[in-house]
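Here we describe the complex-level prediction in full. Unlike the single-chain runs in Section 2.1, the three entities below were treated as one system.
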Amino acid sequence: MISLSALSVLVWLAVGVSVFSVVFLIALLIRDFKRGVLW
Amino acid sequence: MQTRVCTVSWLVFLLTVSSSCIAEIRLSSDSDISPEGYFVLSWQSDAGRPLTLEQSQTETFNDIKTYILPAEGSITLTGFVDGNYFFRISSDVEISNTVEVLVSHHALSRAFSFFFLGLLLFFILLTAIFIGHSRVGLQND
Amino acid sequence: MINAVVSPGVALFILLVFGMLWITAGYYLGRKNKTLDDHMLAGRNVGLAFASATAMATWVTSNTTMTAPQLTYQLGVWGMMGYSLGAVGLLLFAPLAGRIKKILPHGFTSGDFIRERYGVLAWRVFLIISLFYAFGWLISLGMAGGILVNALSGLSYHLGMSVILLVCTSYTLLGGLRAVIATDFVQTLIILMGVIIIAVLVINNIGFETLHTSVQESNPMLLSLLFPAAIMFLFNNLLFGVGEIFHSNVWWSRAFAFRKNIGTKAFYISGLLWLPIPIVAGFIALSAPSLGLMVPSADMVGPMVAGKILGTSGAVIVFIVIFSALASSLDSLLAATSDLITQDIYRGHINKSASDERCYRFGKYIIVALGLATWLLCLPRLTTLASLLYFTGAFVASAIWPIVFGLYFRWATGPGAVAAMLGGTVSGLFAYFNIGFYVAALVSCAVSLLLMVSISLLQKAEFKFENIAVDKGVT
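The structure predicted for the assembly as a whole is:
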């Protein structure tokens, strides 16, 4: 059985990575735009 | 005489009306044996009364768990461990047929066989890609 | 079912506002498209940001947002984590994307590779698998759109489904792959932010302790780490995902479209970004017992939880997230399937000397035809059609080895590939019907491997990769 703490850590970790993803993608877009290599 | 006729007519009337009103609740399950611990129960009920689902591990419904059912005619139950489960629906006036579902999870040995087969295939895949990728990298240099 | 918390009017308004946004983007981006390369492959020069986002967004389908909670509800924590293993397909495709771009610099489709590598018979078998999968996915997306819109808002299935298909077909037609990719970027952000908000609100409203306790009491198997069916599901799902991505032109067209040296990085990034989404979207299903939710069918548990906890605003968020997930996959699928039909059926079989300009025009007709065909097939709302997608596990997993061995090893042969695809598919379907959906891809993959290796090695061939010469079309 998955413990309460393991479950909460797993979910919070997943949420954290998703938040990071948003920031990361926007940063990547800005970088590509500045370099003129969007597409 | 007239009261008797009236009574009889009233009784006849009641009988005819109530026989068409005797709602039957019919309960059924999508599987008799569930190897995954989830299954769908469906019911048909003519009367628009609030219905309760009763769940028990004994046929005599000694120890019951109840769910108050919504209007839709089906419910998905899940997460059951191995065992026999009996279900019936009751409204305030009647009880449906009893449905039995046997939850019998796949043997863990079978589960792990598939797991290790999958792990093996995954490992072969990783190796193939790794070897292939490094080989073509070498060829280009 | 769900108390339609979003009114039909609001639902239609959201669909139309976002729809107009995507279509306008499609129109402006499409004005720059002059050649077949522009339209089909966004000029073959897409940069890292767009590349990563489109790979991620396309793989987040309504399946991710709906099926993740469904699988969590049916198979518990391993169901949820097993669904995350779908990211492995993206991660493993990363090196393949680089290889594909290298050996087929002028290639258009996955079909181009199979034909050049294995010959005509293998090509045709592969096309059947590809088109079956494409239609299965298109129909499941089209129907999901209508069903969800109806469940969340009461807006009629037919109206919702039609609006979604019309919007996606329109901007794909107008803007080609550039429009697909640009809208994918925005849709990715919407999806990510949406699932984060819903997850955090569920955690705040219920809390892990309550959630854990009530599941332990009423649905104990869902927390079990020794849940047999879920354990069987783990690698099956991984291999299903790998099969889907490795064979499908949706991903091959991206490999061709991304700038050189970008493809590999983009797929690694998208795989990692995708990994947590099924967990974020799926775990909310575990709150169903503590909410006392009576779930009629497992695939509705996600929207039901969101609607129950979050009320109108939650339902609106769910609505926008699912619409974005649907659109980001539908547009890719319409574009890539049209490419496949144009290049491999039209130019490959019907009009072998068709020029690029001709294919450019023909491809546009095919997009419309695909949109129309999907709409017609979704009209009767046959649920058995929606479950077509589950069968495809047996089909697509059989194509993994032909593709991997074909890209890297000289000993892989056409007959081996044909046997692998046919044998894998048949055995996978057998397993599907006799054991369960959660082993079909795995069985197909195993049988396919045996056939591919044994028959190829018996032939003792040595393929010369220099022979692959897809210049502009079929040679």
